[in-house]
Design goal:
This protein is mostly helical and 152 residues long. The protein has 2 domains: 9-97; 98-152, no CATH class. 80% of the residues lie in helices and 0% in strands. The protein contains 6 helices and no strands. Helix 2 (13-93) runs parallel beside helix 5.
Length: 152
């Protein structure tokens, strides 16, 4: 009373071969699908790595450009401050000419916001403060007079 007979005894050879071929086709399909998925994942990860390298290179280039621009700006501000100081010294050396600054050439009255500019430029940085201070010195009006006239 053995109910458990081997599979080869229970099924004919043709049926067994058909079942094996179906199993092989199913495994081949599953393997093919997993290989395709694996290739897609590898391709996407390689693309992400390449993009990361490009982004890093672009960030370094942007950093170099920013540093160069800041250096150029600093040189320009220093040159401007030096030019204003040289202009102020030249005006002090020649007593026959009244001290006219660029600001006075544009308007007959000094701006009441000049002390505000001076106090705000002191917070901005030393070069901006020097520029504003030299404008105030060459305007011919004392800092205290201007402070009294304006409300900063």
């Amino acid at each position: 009373m053995n109910d458990f007979e081997p599979a080869s005894v229970q099924r004919p050879d043709a049926d067994l071969a058909k079942q094996r071929s179906e199993i092989r086709r199913g495994l081949n399909r599953a393997n093919l699908a997993s290989v395709i998925i694996l290739i897609v994942v590898i391709g996407l990860s390689l693309g992400a790595v390449l993009q990361a390298f490009r982004a890093e290179r672009n960030a370094q280039e942007a950093q170099r450009s920013r540093r160069a621009a800041e250096a150029d700006l600093l040189r320009a501000q220093q040159s401007e401050a030096q030019a204003l100081l040289d202009q102020s010294r030249a005006q002090r050396r020649s007593p026959t000419q009244p001290p006219f600054s660029t600001l006075q050439r544009c308007s007959t009255k000094p701006s009441p916001s000049l002390p505000c500019l001076l106090s705000n430029s002191f917070r901005s940085g030393p070069i901006q403060f020097l520029l504003s201070f030299s404008l105030l010195q060459t305007s011919g009006i004392s800092q205290f007079e201007m402070m009294e006239k304006s409300n900063c």
